[in-house]
Amino acid sequence: MGFPTLKNDRLIRALLRQPTDTTPVWIMRQAGRYLPEYRETRKQAGSFLDLCKNKELACEVTLQPLRRFALDAAILFSDILTIPDAMGLGLYFAEGEGPRFEHPLRSADAIQRLGIPDPHDSLRYVTDAVSLIRQELDGQVPLIGFSGSPWTLSTYMVEGGSSKEYRFVKGMMYDNPAVLHQLLDKLAQAVIAYLNAQIEAGAQAVMVFDTWGGVLTPQTYRDFSLRYMQQIVAGLKREHEGQTIPVTLFTKGGGQWLEAIADTGCDAVGLDWTIDIDEARARIGDRVALQGNLDPCMLYADHETIRAAVKDIITRFGNHPGHVFNLGHGIHQTVDPEHLGVLIDAVHEFGLEIRR
Amino acid sequence: MGFPTLKNDRLIRALLRQPTDTTPVWIMRQAGRYLPEYRETRKQAGSFLDLCKNKELACEVTLQPLRRFALDAAILFSDILTIPDAMGLGLYFAEGEGPRFEHPLRSADAIQRLGIPDPHDSLRYVTDAVSLIRQELDGQVPLIGFSGSPWTLSTYMVEGGSSKEYRFVKGMMYDNPAVLHQLLDKLAQAVIAYLNAQIEAGAQAVMVFDTWGGVLTPQTYRDFSLRYMQQIVAGLKREHEGQTIPVTLFTKGGGQWLEAIADTGCDAVGLDWTIDIDEARARIGDRVALQGNLDPCMLYADHETIRAAVKDIITRFGNHPGHVFNLGHGIHQTVDPEHLGVLIDAVHEFGLEIRR
């Protein structure tokens, strides 16, 4: 494909548990509303979806945080709900209320009728953006591709949007599990095709966001979420053009199930902030890299408090390969960007220090 | 006080890990909107707060589920935000948006000015309701009193209502911990006085709901939530008129911290549905009783599926004293009451079976 050579490979090496000079760091939602330049571009684009679907603007916002901060990765600017949108559910964003679908899935028939979108067709705007970003990055840092997990996608698709109680999707899970399994299987196939297309287009690592896996029971987590993420891990291109493509799984609220997540064969496990990273490392650090796990609200604290919190996590992880620093969830839109700069510099400083 | 003698003491015995003939069961929010008779009484009362503050109507809705189901306990009908309301924050309910405060706490000054409400004065409507309910129960089953935890109360008080990101309260926690500690200490004192007043008025067991403890890190959970619940456990009247008053602590999302919760000296620990009860029993069952832990969404399933799920939990707990069956969170308003009846009968049936 002729992409420029990667200059900073800390992220890839850490995800594969290879030694690095310091701890790599990127931030979930690093391209987002906390940045004034993002808000400016978003205004130009029109709606959030218009921004996702315009490859030049998606590329621009992906690169914006890299111009401010010494980040070790870029992550594709997109939405986790592109697949359901491509399946015809009619994604839209109600002002201040998050994502909604015009056609929520409430019947076995509707689920049976769903096709698996061809990523080279209805999701072409994503792969085009991936290739453009990869080109524009000029080898500065690697580009991460991503998708929502089948379970997490299904919650939005069945509920019709965000949810507190998961009444419809869990009702289906308990009352009509075969129908939900049919949906999840289609979604797993769709995610595999989508992520492989991102890899072919230039993504150098991929991540699956299981934002709502934590609302399940241990048994239903294994059967309705993890099983399909395992299917995805098994179906992904793990090598592309001679490079290993690391896969990260992240279940928010999944701290009780880390061993099972690590057993999927993924390369890295994302952690939210409800677990100490030294405990997570003791439990699964022999098998996978760990990504995380600062509470996003720590960015409301002063510089010294942020630095101390970064140091605590790096010290807890210790002088071992396999740590990618991140927040435990996406950065809030009300955070002062300067505070994020303090965090990123502190990661590199203390990451260097712990390796001495 | 001359209250009628307690006829069904399964709940109290199970909370104290004494043998019972079958597994006792009650349901969080058992007096609530899923019952048509509740919705009728609520209409008569006016607002939700009017209903809480009218002792006759609060008594009526407390007793309603007992007329339908063979429940082993009544729980005071009230709101967790009565204490902040009595502190002068001006509780109100925005239609469809949950609780709100007219005067959220955002400054050290506002927190310093807060007084600790005298439960015999501004919360008298609660203790009056407790005594009336206890009288009306006529010894049929015990009456549970309750309060929100200091941390959970503080989230509403600082945010001004429900929250997703906990920006203000966690911002205060990280940036100005001494001020938040001052608030939490006042709340702990207020909760102790409030629960002791409920015990004196006739509550035979008490429970502390830490609904939002699960959004904290391990360290901040211990420092900002658990520490104050421990203070409460230590400050409660554990004996009243010759009867032991069991104390239950429930942190939703606290499955990773069960050992620390059990170490507070409480009698029982509430579980949400993200942990298997056999695992919880293996971890802390030598010290405390366990309450839980069916996913509330299971009540959308058919009768046989509900029965199988009840049997699974009772079988996992095994033939040991110390289990109080409950949901892992409050019953949803859209549940068919008949399904709850199936659950309750199944608990008693399988609870008997496991003891054979």
Structural description of this entry:
Two copies of one chain form a homodimer. By secondary structure, chain A is α/β, with parallel strands linked by helices. The model of chain A has no long low-confidence stretch (mean pLDDT 97). In chain A, a hairpin with a 3-residue loop joins β2 and β3. In chain A, α8 packs across α9, α8 packs across α10 (177-201) and α14 (303-317) packs parallel to α15. The first copy, chain A, is globular and about 60 Å long. Chain A is 48% helix and 13% strand. The A-B interface holds A 165-167, 170-171, 173-175, 214-220, 253, 255-256, 273-276, 279, 295-298, 300-302, 305, 309, 332, 334 and B 165-167, 170-171, 173-175, 214-220, 253, 255-256, 273-276, 279, 295-298, 300-302, 305, 309, 332, 334.
Query: What portion of residues of chain A is helical?
Result: 40-55%
Strands in their spatial order, largest beta sheet of chain A: 1-4-5-8-9-10-11
Mean pLDDT of chain A: 97
Identify the biggest protein-protein contact and residues per side: A-B, 34 and 34 residues
What is the CA–CA distance across the termini of chain A?
39 Å
Summary, kept brief:
Chain A is built from 15 helices and eleven strands. Chain A has 356 residues and is of the alpha/beta class.
Primary descriptors:
15 helices; 11 strands; 356 residues; homodimer; 7-stranded parallel β-sheet
List the helices and strands and how they pair.
The structure is a homodimer of 356-residue chains.
Chain A: H1 10-15, H2 36-45, H3 48-53, H4 55-68, E1 74-75, H5 82-89, E2 91-94, E3 98-101, H6 108-113, H7 124-137, E4 143-148, H8 150-159, H9 167-175, H10 177-201, E5 205-210, H11 218-235, E6 239-240, E7 243-244, E8 247-251, H12 258-262, E9 268-270, H13 277-284, E10 289-294, H14 303-317, E11 323-327, H15 337-354
Parallel strand pairs in A: 1-4, 4-5, 5-8, 8-9, 9-10, 10-11
Antiparallel strand pairs in A: 2-3, 6-7
Helix pairs in contact in A: 2-4, 4-7, 7-10, 8-9, 8-10, 9-10, 10-11, 14-15
